[in-house]
Structures are given as structure tokens and as C-alpha cells.
Amino acid sequence: MERPSLEINLPDTYEEGKLYVVDSLNNLNKLNVCPDGSQYALENTAGSNIRNQCLFFVTFILTLIVSLALVSFVIFLIIQTRNKVDQISSRLISEKKNIEDLKKMNNMILKDPCLRG
After folding, report:
1. CA angle at residue 62 from 47 to 66, to 5 degrees?
2. Where are the alpha helices (DSSP H) in the chain?
3. Where are the domains of the chain?
4. Where are the transmembrane segments (predicted)?
């Protein structure tokens, strides 16, 4: 009695797999899966995608530039406001000194009977 062989003949299945792949590719070519119109649609979609990415990039750069300009303007306004506040503070200090001097002069006038009149 002959025993059936349990060995698998790998080279034959490998060759059959190759043939199956080649047949599948041939069938796809025969079906013409991508007719000329759909190929154009795929290229058009890719071009549109690239345009969208470029548009996004340009918009992003413009947004960064506008943001930088606004921040610079705000910093400029803060510096100007600080300068104005410093000027007003120095004026108030000098006016306070002038008022104190006038009070001293007024007190001297009120104390001296000769200067009252």
C-alpha cells in the first residue's frame, strides 16, 4: 500500500501564484479599469489638492504677517502710552512743587505784618 505524501511541493504553488498574479493583471488591463476620463479626473483631483495646500500655506503666511503687524502696533501703543504717562507724572510733580512754594509764600505774607498792607 502506498502512503500519500504529506510533503507540499512549494515550487509548484509559487509558480501557480505567479501565474495567478499575471492573469489578474492581464484581466485588469483588458477591463481598462482607468479609462482616459477617469485618469484625467484623478490628475485633476491631485492638482486641486496641491492648489489647496498652496492656498492654505499662503493664507497661513499672510495670517502670521498680519498678526506680527498687530502685535508690533500694540507694542508701539504701549510704549507711547508709557511715555505720555511719564510726561504727565513729571508735570504733576513740578506742579506740586510750585503749589508748595506758593503755600510757603502765602504763609510768609500772612505772618509778616509789613507785607499785609
Report:
1. 165
2. 10-31, 36-111, 113-116
3. 26-116
4. 55-79
Residue 35 CA to residue 5 CA, distance in Å, equals 49
Contacts of residue 115, defined as CB under 8 A and 6 or more positions apart, other chains included, come to: 108, 109
Q: Which of 107, 7, 26 is nearest to 99 (CA)?
A: 107
Could you give the CA distance from residue 53 to residue 60 in angstroms, rounded to a whole number? 10
Within 8 A by CB and 6+ apart from 84, the residues are none
Q: Within a 10 A sphere around the Cβ of 67, how many other Cβ atoms?
A: 10
15 vs 25: CA distance, rounded Å: 15
